Structures are given as structure tokens and as C-alpha cells.
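FYI - complex with iron/sulfur cluster, inputs then prediction.
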Amino acid sequence: MHTRVSLVVCASYDDDVLKEAVAKAIELSGFTLSFLRGKRVILKPNLLMPIAPERAVTTHPAFFRAVAELVLDETNNVCVIDSPNFFALSSALKKTGIGEVAQSLGLEIADNTITRPLHWEGACRYKTHEISEAFFDADVIINLPKLKSHSLTYLTGAVKNLFGTIPGTKKAQMHMKVPDPVEFSEYLLDLYGATLFGFEKKKEFLHMMDAVVGLEGEGPGPSGKPKKIGAVIAGADAVAVDVVAAKLVNFDINKIFTITRSFRRSFGINSPADISIKGDDIEKMKIADFVPSKTSVLKSRFWSSITPALKNLFVERPIPVEGKCTLCFYCRRVCPAGAIIEQKDARVPAFNSSKCIRCFCCLETCPNEAIVLKKGLLQWGK
Ligand code: SF4
Ligand code: SF4
């Protein structure tokens, strides 16, 4: 299948600049805004956690506003939803600035806690997903990911952002159920396929990526570092949008299993050659020094068969840092393996590296950058 992805220069979150870039990206992607007339539209930003927009962890509120205003020109039936890792949606909306935009535009906020099973028989392995009910009655889903590096999936973009259809802590439970990064990526593709083919009422998709400022290093949470990229990317195919994002930040797509494994599927593109990039010149926009996560989990093809002892020798493990840790215990709450416990009179929680499955949910969640990666005893190199 051939698909089109638009790539447009956007130097800042200044309202006028952004709105022009977003409108151009939508037009070049082949999506017609008038199609939205009279339709029910879901806007699905990345609201990982309650955090200020300057940290580049969540979709920027100005980006959200630019898209929402264009949508509102066509329909008033617009709803916002996402499921932060374990924080309430209301607190994430408030801190990220997206709640204020949604309120000023009169957008409906969906209840992300009411769920319903979404079943797709054509999935490779994970056929049923308990997702937020609000997605079911939509005609169009506009997915608004942020371009970020990711400790487990290398890149988080359009495919990974759909993981937010699963409510709160159920996401962490999936990490426990599927700790292997390759298998986890297959799971994400089954979920993506379910959103394409599992709904009785078929949805149209538009994936609009906020790549004006991205997040590099130990993303996708506060341990990552904001990095200016200066782009808006849009398309109807989530994998294709992620391929263009990866190329833009000079990431090797072979390290991104949500991309490589998708090429074997019966839907979507089969290779990067199936993408026509419309708009600005990707070669001139490339960010050559965008830093990926340091974790080595993606280098192991046999992750699920590695014993805890071998993991401790050859794989980085998260450890808390005294002086930075405030003992908020968000890490303990999010840890699906029960590997983090409170220790009496200590200034940091105790991390049990043998129980740890290296999902890095703690690193993603810690609000104080108080978790760092420590190399395994037999790991070498940078
Ligand atoms: S390591 Fe981070 S998340 Fe965990 S208790 Fe300390 S500050 Fe909180
Ligand atoms: S300690 Fe951190 S990386 Fe390890 S299982 Fe718990 S949340 Fe995941």
C-alpha cells in the first residue's frame, strides 16, 4: 500500500506560525478538513502525566489548539481523551495546559475510566483490548503524538500514542504481561490494527505529530531532554508517520520494532519506499544529533529467555538517586513487577533488580529525574 505523509517546517509554538504549519500539513497529507463536517471527532493528545508543556513530555497546548481550532471550523462535536499512566486525566489536563485550551474552546472531555472491549480477530496474538469507551462512537480519531525517544520502544510516536486508549494502570499491567520489547511492539501493532479494523463503526484516522520540540535521551518522561526539531508531520498511516519521524531525527528504523514488525502485517505499508513525503525537504530538516535512549534492552533478541541474573550482568537497571528523590513513591505505584518498596528510614525506595522487568515505567514517571540507569556489571561501552 502506498501512502502520503506530510512534513512541514514549524519553527515555534507561536499561534500564527503553528496554525499555518498545521493547516498546510493536513492539506499536504491528503486529508480534507471538510470531511469532518457533522462528524464526531476524538482528539487524542499525549498526556502521559501532569507536567508543564516546556518539558516536552506531552503534546504542546498550542499545537493542540491549532488542530482543535481547524477541526471546530467544521464540527462542534469534538471530544478530548487520553489516559495518563496512573494520574487522573483532570490533573494531566490542568498541568499540561491542554485542559485550559479545551475549556476555552468548549470541548467535551471524555471519561477515560469507562471501558469496553475492542476485539479484532485478525490480530497476530492480542485480539481483545479493554479500551476507553469514548473511542467507540467517534467517526474520526485525530491522534496527536509527541516525537520522543523511548527507553523501551526506542521511538514513541503515532503507533505508541494509541497505547493511551488503554486506561491508566492497565498499561503498566501490559508491560508485566509482555515484558519483551519485540513482543510488546507486536502487542502495540495488534492494538493499532484493532483500532483500524475492530470497531463496528469504522474510524477515519489522522495522525498529527507535534515535532516542533521533541524529547531526546531517556524519554518518554521527565528524564528525557527537550530538543528543538521544528516540524509538523501528518498522515493517515501511523507507521508511515513514525517512519518519517524516525528519519527526521536520524534514528535507525531497524531499532524500532513497531515499524519493522508492521512491515510483515497485512495492513499498512510494507517498507519505507511505500511513503511519499510531501512538503519540506527532510534532508535539510534532519536533526543529526538527536540522542536516543541509552538502554540496551532493544539489542537483545532473546529478551524473554534472559534470567534475572543475566539481566543484572548485561542490562542497565534503574536506581534511585539520593538528594533528588522526594520519596513521592510514584515509581512504586507504577511498577508492574512490585520491584520497588519503601525502606524504613532510607532516603530512597529500594529497587529489587532481580524482580525488575526493565519496562522503565518508573523512569518514565519519576517527576524529579531521580532515577538513573546503572550499567550491568559486565556491560561495557558508553
Ligand atoms: S525515585 Fe522518583 S518517583 Fe520514586 S520515590 Fe523518588 S522521587 Fe518519587
Ligand atoms: S523497577 Fe522500574 S523498570 Fe523495573 S519493573 Fe519496576 S517500573 Fe519497570
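Residues 153 and 286 are 21 Å apart (CA to CA). The two ends are 40 Å apart (CA to CA).
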